[in-house]
Structures are given as C-alpha cells and as structure tokens.
Amino acid sequence: MVNAIEMLNNASKGKYAIPQFNINNLEWTKYILEECNELKSPVILGVSEGAAKYMGGFFVVSNMVLGLIKDLGIKIPVALHLDHGSSFLSCKNAIDAGFTSVMIDASNQSIEDNIKINKEVVEYAKIKNVSVEAEIGKIGGTEDDITTTESLAGLDDCILLYNKTNVNFIAPAIGSVHGMHKGPLNLNLNILIEIKKSIDIPLVLHGGTGIPENKIIQCIKNGISKININTELQLEWSKAVRKYLKDNVDVYDPRKIIASGENALKETVKRKVILLNSGNRI
Ligand code: 13P
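That is the input. Now the predicted structure with 1,3-dihydroxyacetonephosphate docked in place:
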C-alpha cells in the first residue's frame, strides 16, 4: 500500500483521474482490487468511518486490504483512504492502523478551525508518510437535494488553507452532491479553474455518482485528479443481487448471494476507470 501523493501527482500531470471506490466488505474490496489490477489502474479504496465501524474497525480494514493484496498478487499502487474523517483522533486512529491516506472533513467549521485541524492532521500524517485531503465549502448529500451557492468553495479560503497547512489535496465544493441528486446538477467549473490556477495541487471531486460523463471529462481537464464513487456501486450491485434472489428463491449460501453482484460491480468499476482515463491510458 502507498499514499496517494505520487498517483495523484501523475494523474494531475497526465490529465486523467484516479478513482476512489468506497468499500463496505471483503468481497467488494476483492472485486475492486481484481478489476483495477486487470486494468492496470492505480486505485484508492475509500472507507468512511461508518463503513470502518461496520467491518470491525480500522485495523480489520487495513489488515484485510493488505491480505488481499498479498494473496491475490495485486501489482497496482493501492492507497487506503479514510473518507470524511470527522476529527484529528479519527484520522490518527486510521493512520495508526495502517491507512495510507486520510481526509479530514472540517468543512462545517470556520475556515480558521478548518485550517487548525488540517495543520494538526498534516503534521501527524507527514511523520507517517500519509497523504491528507481537506474539504472546503460544503459538499451536500441527497438529503440536501442540491448544494446551494453559499456552500461552494471560496477561492481565498482554498489559497489560505493550502498556504497555512501544505495539505496534499483539496476537495472544493463545486456543486456536486453525494448520492443520487434529484434536481439538475450545476457544476461550477469556473471555481475549479480559478482554484487550479492559484494552487497547483491535485483537486478532488466528491459525489461521483450521477454526474454526466461529459461533465466528468470537463472536470478532469480543469484540475480534478481524484473522483470519489460510492452510491453507483451500491446501486448496481444491489440491482444484480435483487434480480438473482428473485430468480433463485432457493439459494441460501451467502457466498453465492454476495457474488451474484460481482459482475455488475466489476463492470461499473471498469466503466469508471475507462472514463476517468478518457481513453488515454487503457
Ligand atoms: P457518491 O456516493 O455520490 O458516488 O459520492 C461518493 C463520495 O463522494 C465519497 O466521499
């Protein structure tokens, strides 16, 4: 496992993006690693605090990923990333358990507090060779329907936070939302262009589900080097499993039930990897 710095710097230079696929269990992790290895694409495995807790904790996740890399003979660079870490302690615990990258999400705090907590996390992460992602502005969820203009990232805040913390990546809120959005999506590319012009570090797009492909490509052209995808994997996997259970009412082996979503999940991963490379590298 590696931190995400080199893979994102290469992506930024080469104008492609690295996918962050969020994981929930052993099987998903295995499928994602196998598919990305097949495609020779570096990958970031995203783990929310909730997903880590569900799987047993940060140590379980870290050792599971290490074990899969070894036993499956995975050759691509893999970063294990805490998604939306909510406190310094949470980031520290993930790092201590072997995570190679963390996001500290203090975007709901004042910019001064966001800077303060980022500084603490960056200081600790640096000693352990771990990369750090910050969020600026507020990226909404489906419950918010769509982000409001007030929650978009401010250019001055991005410059200030970067200069004061030396964080490795910034996820600026540019209008994307987590999950499936109901209304039209208004991505503000101008903000993205301005930020990239002012701070030359890799930028991150959250809420990768449901964004039209041409918009994704525009984002990559204008400075996005990492795209987070979660809900779309869940939708595609569960659709396949639901159909399998309907067609096979007598099956009770959990291995068969979970694996009935393997192809759908791998196909989704493949589609995303190819899109994020815009045909450049694969
Ligand atoms: P989606 O669930 O919209 O794909 O977003 C994932 C994400 O941004 C995780 O941080």
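The longest strand covers residues 78-85.
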